[in-house]
Amino acid sequence: MALAGTGTAVLGTPATPVAAAPTGPGLDALLQNLHTAGIPGVHARVVSGGRGYAPAAGVADLHTGQPARPGLRHRVGGVTKSFVAVAVLQLVHERRVDLDQPVTRYLPGVVPGERGRRITVRMLLNHTSGIADYARVALDPAGADGALFATRASIAATATRTFTPRELVALGLGLPAAGEPGALWSYANTNYVLLAMLIERVTGRSYEAELTRRVLRPLGLAATGLPGGVRALPGPHLAAYVPWDDGHPRDFTRYDMSWAWGGADLISTPGDLNRFYRLLLGGRVLPPAMLREMLTTVPMAAAYPEYAGYGLGIFWLAGACGRMWGHDGLAVGHSTYSGHSEDGHSVQFTLAENMNFFPAGDARVAATDAARSAFEGAVFDGCGTPARAALWPHRIRNAAVLH
């Protein structure tokens, strides 16, 4: 399928050969281990050796007992950034945006002073702007210090609070800078709020409308959409849970996602995410020059530059059998891991889970990490590389565990 106006060429380098993933029963067993380790419900879509699998384990909803199953929607968190980056790169291809022009050219006055004149669109896309992540600001009514989701009180407060994009940007700009523009990689949702604002300023249409028009509809992603201010999840979905102080999981399926506008608010399914990355990495979404820009990376962590690199809304992780491209995502109660071979089709997996933010020291943190790593290693390369799982971006910034 060739998408109109996007080009159909693929990258010139061949994909690294990878070993076949386990078959259906083996995948079911691996996800059962993840469920047993502490996640109420998990499901995935896996492609390997030309065959597709849809393993699942546990329950989608603890109240009704509905089993986890293929096709359920969930909030994909930071995976949204790959979609936003595609829309921006389409604008670059149309010569309406220049990657190396300062953000002030498109959003005058939003990032004030010298910083706004030094930060480029590319720096926003690859998280080298030096702007801090607004999610490091706590909204705890008790005034506790820490990140947006550092305490359960903050998680609960954010569930019913509506933010404007300007408020989110102000929170990020009000924090100490993570570094000088262009100097280092530092993940910040603030960057993608600015990019969504840029899309709106350049096109004259809403970010949601442009993402739907440019990406979701042309790619046939029928189960994927944006919340548009609605706190409930549409259609069949995974419920979203956080362990609470009383020992019982708290249901946060209804959640105001304005805190994640522009960078982490997409709703999708593992099947749709696999389709998106298959078309993207296969050269069927962006023209070749734009795809090359997207896949040009900077080190995600200075201590191990050979193991992970971040491009424009997408990253790679090194495995024993080759690079895995994709993104992870964290929303309250939902975690997403989406990894794909370099050609976009030899091996793919997207994993969805419905519990996160375990308390610090909770044994389930180590147990679920180990079970998830076993699944990822078996699916992607069969080479048993569990240490690689520590390099997912939201683990680098240590956002998955409450402190």
The CATH H-level homologous superfamily: DD-peptidase/beta-lactamase superfamily
Instruction: Write the H/E string, N to C.
Output: HEEEEHHHHHHHEEEHHEEEEEEEHHE
End-to-end C-alpha gap: 47 Å
- Number of helices, counting only DSSP H or I runs of 4 residues or more: 12
Count of discrete domains: 1
Instruction: State mean pLDDT (0 to 100 scale).
Output: 87
Name of the level-1 CATH class: Alpha Beta
Strand content: 15-25%
CATH architecture: 3-Layer(aba) Sandwich
Please summarize the sheet with the most strands. Answer: 9 strands, antiparallel
Provide the CATH topology: Beta-lactamase
Q: What's the β-strand tally?
A: 15
Category from helices, strands and their pairing = alpha+beta
Shape: globular
User: What Rg do the Cα atoms give?
Assistant: 20 Å
Uncertain runs: 1-21, 383-391, 394-403
Helix amount, in percent?
25-40%
